[in-house]
Amino acid sequence: MKRAAVPLILFLFGFVLGLLCLFPLRSQSRETPAVPLSPSGAQATGDAASVFSAKDTAALLRSAAGVAEALKAKDYEVLSGYVHPERGVTFSPYSTVDLEADQNFTADQIRDLERDDTRYLWGYEDGRGEPIQLTIAQFLEQFIFSVDYTQAPSVGVDQIVMSGNSLENLQEAYPDCRFVDLCYPSLDPAYEGLDWCSLKMVFAPTQSGWYLVGLIHSQWTI
């Protein structure tokens, strides 16, 4: 039997519906901190610097779902439409973001990435220290979308679902942004959670919506 909808879409629908029920006609006051909801429906305190309306959060989640679907389909024309027109998108191979060293690409570069056979230096492998030298397409496949994140069982909104030994500095690196964390707490029960991984999508607000500025791959590190 076909699955009715992927978990990310189900979460998006339920989350937006819940927010609209709670806040049908008005935005939240900026005097009260936002309380993001975890995928399980339990409330959790968030670290977002600003309070956003239910409409803003719904738009953010739609953008995250669109990016995930474009990555899955390897539809880079569609993906490029989500990339910030001025800031581009920065790729981080592990949780710690280094905006000076991490690779950044424009929307046009993302649109044409399959024709780009340049092997870029993305960072260094955890534990081994070997340079990560891959084309953009190879990096997306091996790091960014190494598993199907449209099926991610855990979703965090402005909230990191899981972390390891790596410094989590997303909010310091992107203080003016919001993010969605798509996480697999475990891929194989035999590894007892040591094989967890996640994809954090960082979005900046503009007058026309939320645009992608960062993609961060996270996993268990030594």
Please summarize what this structure is.
The protein has 222 residues and is of the alpha+beta class. Helices cover 27% and strands 22% of the residues.
Helix segment tally: 6
Q: How would you state the average pLDDT, rounded? A: 82
| SSE class | alpha+beta
Sheet-strand content, in percent, reads 15-25%
Describe this structure in words.
This protein is an alpha+beta fold and 222 residues long. The chain has six helices and eight strands, in the order H-H-H-E-E-H-E-E-H-E-H-E-E-E. It has helices at residues 7-22, 54-73, 76-82, 107-111, 136-144, 170-173, and strands at 89-92, 103-105, 120-124, 131-134, 154-157, 178-184, 197-206, 209-219. The strands form two sheets. A six-stranded mixed β-sheet has the order 2-1-8-7-6-5. The protein has a two-stranded antiparallel sheet with strand order 3-4. A hairpin with a 2-residue loop joins strand 7 (197-206) and strand 8. The longest helix has 20 residues, at 54-73. The termini are far apart. The model is unreliable at 1-5 and 16-50 (pLDDT under 50).
What's the topology here?
Layout: H1 7-22, H2 54-73, H3 76-82, E1 89-92, E2 103-105, H4 107-111, E3 120-124, E4 131-134, H5 136-144, E5 154-157, H6 170-173, E6 178-184, E7 197-206, E8 209-219
Q: Which features does this protein show?
A:
single chain; 222 residues; alpha+beta; six-stranded mixed beta sheet; two-stranded antiparallel sheet; 6 helices; 8 strands; globular
